[in-house]
């Protein structure tokens, strides 16, 4: 009986995991590539070119800034328009990947 | 015949190995990918794809880039060279940075591609076999639609300057030699064309030059389109506030032909003689794309699967940038081509590792345009994959244009250029 339950719960786990398997294992990396055109590869901006370096910034701060761009709380020329293109989950992934950059 | 083994040999002979440079990015996932990718065209799309294939695979995928020119010259910012605000050197970047990533850069012309044999033939350096090919050749002009410009002589006199390089400098010289009180006329083709705001930026920057140096001169925009194609309100405002009486905009002015000798644009109901006539002919995907057997829309643009940028019919061939049949509201821009290059690189690495491409690619775009030397306007958009429509669509509520022209955005435009050049080439 115990064996059956284990087998059943494994099946549930497999079922729960399968939609995730169809998703993008490199999603955070790929999303950050959207930022690189202005903010440098992996968020490492060209020095003294007037663009913010995002690599290595604390994740919470990056998420907060994006949220402020989206709400309009933080004035911007273009980032308020770009930030609205990404979901909370995407912003979380982007911020996490950038924060982990050395 | 240049195959994978030859690639490794050649790479070894030039001191290349994965250990030569520090390869960034994370070591998981894509490093399972193995194979040889040949990229044709080292512009915004191709150079980006080449670098990201090397970076994201941690050097496990061999990449050869075929590029005719020995240096990269940027179309974005080239209107500032035409206006005398920048030099060609300011918009030129070496391919050495890509070599440091382990990309084998070959300067040659592609004369043929055989999708079935997975082989690319070069003009001088033989044949290359590939596991996947990336074609990012930019545009080819449809000279048939402007018969008077078919000869090399006519093309040397009536410039397009829509591919940055010698033509950029030549147009600058024509403007410098023009007498004060002359007319500069720019013929804009029907959309879709490369760089939607580009013609209006060029008109603005040439007016900026005239205002300071040849104030009696005139800028005439002969637009085949029914209206200004991009950032209309901001451009029209700049023309009336900065260049009153100097810039004239004529919609629905499709070019039928050109008399090169007299520098005359022949329209349906009118003939316009100019002192400097600048014609951007209608264009299509680059030759390597149209010759590859890839399915084209209207005989002009390649239809791609937006999950991978792979041709809808020519398997193993990925097509980037201006050559693609653009998704709705997606401009033919350098920024966009760079984003195509990254989505294609990620998809190719998955495919070479035996995995499906990401089902949820995202792309963004920002096009900055100078309206004078110190003021800039933008249009921005964010694009996501729509599985039902099987294309990229803009994310509702995102994107937009500048509230007003500003000096702050001029600094961002220059900062953007420096960063995107580094993102693709170093």
Automatic annotation (TrEMBL), chain A:
Keyword Signal in record: yes
Keyword annotations from UniProtKB, A to Z: Electron transport, Heme, Iron, Metal-binding, Signal, Transport
Entry annotated with the keyword Lipoprotein: no
GO molecular function, one term: metal ion binding
PROSITE patterns: CYTC
Signal peptide range in chain numbering: 1-22
Annotated Cytochrome c domain residues: 23-102
Organism domain of life: Bacteria
Name under which the protein is recorded: C-type cytochrome
Organism encoding this protein: Candidatus Proximibacter danicus
Lineage: Bacteria, Pseudomonadati, Pseudomonadota, Betaproteobacteria, Candidatus Proximibacter
Automatic annotation (TrEMBL), chain B:
InterPro entries on file: FAD/NAD-bd_sf, FAD/NAD-binding_dom, FAD/NAD-linked_Rdtase_dimer_sf, FCSD_central, FlavoCytC_S_DH_flav-bd, FlavoCytC_S_DH_flav-bd_sf, SQRD, TAT_signal
Record keywords, A-Z: FAD, Flavoprotein
GO molecular function: flavin adenine dinucleotide binding; oxidoreductase activity
PROSITE patterns linked to this entry: PROKAR_LIPOPROTEIN, TAT
FAD/NAD(P)-binding domain span: 36-149
Domain Sulfide dehydrogenase [flavocytochrome c] flavoprotein chain central: start-end pairs: 168-281
Top-level taxon in the UniProt lineage: Bacteria
UniProt key word Flavoprotein: yes
Chain coiled-coil ranges: none
Designated name of the protein: FCSD flavin-binding domain-containing protein
Organism: Candidatus Proximibacter danicus
């Amino acid at each position: 009986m115990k064996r059956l339950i284990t087998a059943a719960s494994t099946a549930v786990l497999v079922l729960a995991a399968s939609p995730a398997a169809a998703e993008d294992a490199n999603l955070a990396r790929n999303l950050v590539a959207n930022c690189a055109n202005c903010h440098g590869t992996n968020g490492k901006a060209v020095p003294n070119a007037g663009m913010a370096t995002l690599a290595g910034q604390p994740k919470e701060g990056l998420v907060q800034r994006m949220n402020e761009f989206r709400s309009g709380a933080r004035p911007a020329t273009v980032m308020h328009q770009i930030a609205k293109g990404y979901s909370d989950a995407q912003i979380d992934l982007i911020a996490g990947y950038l924060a982990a950059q050395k | 015949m240049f195959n994978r083994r030859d690639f490794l040999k050649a790479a070894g002979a030039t001191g290349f190995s994965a250990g030569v440079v520090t390869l960034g990015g994370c070591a998981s996932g894509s490093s399972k990918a193995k194979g040889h990718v040949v990229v044709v065209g080292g512009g915004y799309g191709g150079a980006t794809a080449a670098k990201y294939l090397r970076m994201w695979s941690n050097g496990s995928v061999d990449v050869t880039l075929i590029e005719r020119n020995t240096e990269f010259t940027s179309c974005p910012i080239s209107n500032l060279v035409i206006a005398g605000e920048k030099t060609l050197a300011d918009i030129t970047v070496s391919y050495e940075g890509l070599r440091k990533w382990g990309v084998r850069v070959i300067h040659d012309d592609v004369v043929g591609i055989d999708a079935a044999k997975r082989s690319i033939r070069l003009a001088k350096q033989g044949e290359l076999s590939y596991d996947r090919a990336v074609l990012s050749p930019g545009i080819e002009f449809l000279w048939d639609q402007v018969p008077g410009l078919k000869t090399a002589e006519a093309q040397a006199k009536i410039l397009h300057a829509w591919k940055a390089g010698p033509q950029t400098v030549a147009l600058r010289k024509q403007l410098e030699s023009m007498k004060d009180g002359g007319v500069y006329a720019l013929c804009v083709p029907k959309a879709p064309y490369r760089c939607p705001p580009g013609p209006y930026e060029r008109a603005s920057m040439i007016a900026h030059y005239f205002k300071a140096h040849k104030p009696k001169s005139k800028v005439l925009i002969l637009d085949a389109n029914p209206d200004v194609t991009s950032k209309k309100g901001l451009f029209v405002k700049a023309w009336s506030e900065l260049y009153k009486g100097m810039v004239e905009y004529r919609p629905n002015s499709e070019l039928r032909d050109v008399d090169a000798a007299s520098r005359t644009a022949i329209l349906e109901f009118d003939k316009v003689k100019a002192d400097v006539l600048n014609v951007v002919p209608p264009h299509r995907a680059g030759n390597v794309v149209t010759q590859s057997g890839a399915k084209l829309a209207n005989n002009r643009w390649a239809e791609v699967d937006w999950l991978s940028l792979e041709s809808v019919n020519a398997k193993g061939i990925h097509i980037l940038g201006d050559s693609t049949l653009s998704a709705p509201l997606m401009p033919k821009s350098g920024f966009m081509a760079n984003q195509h290059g990254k989505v294609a690189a990620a998809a190719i690495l998955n495919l070479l590792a035996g995995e499906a491409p990401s089902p949820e690619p995202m792309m963004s775009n920002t096009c900055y345009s100078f309206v004078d030397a110190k003021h800039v306007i933008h249009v921005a958009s964010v694009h996501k994959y729509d599985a039902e429509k099987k294309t990229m669509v803009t994310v509702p509520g995102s994107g937009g244009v500048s509230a007003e022209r500003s000096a702050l955005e001029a600094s961002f435009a220059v900062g953007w250029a420096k960063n995107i050049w580094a993102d693709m080439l170093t």
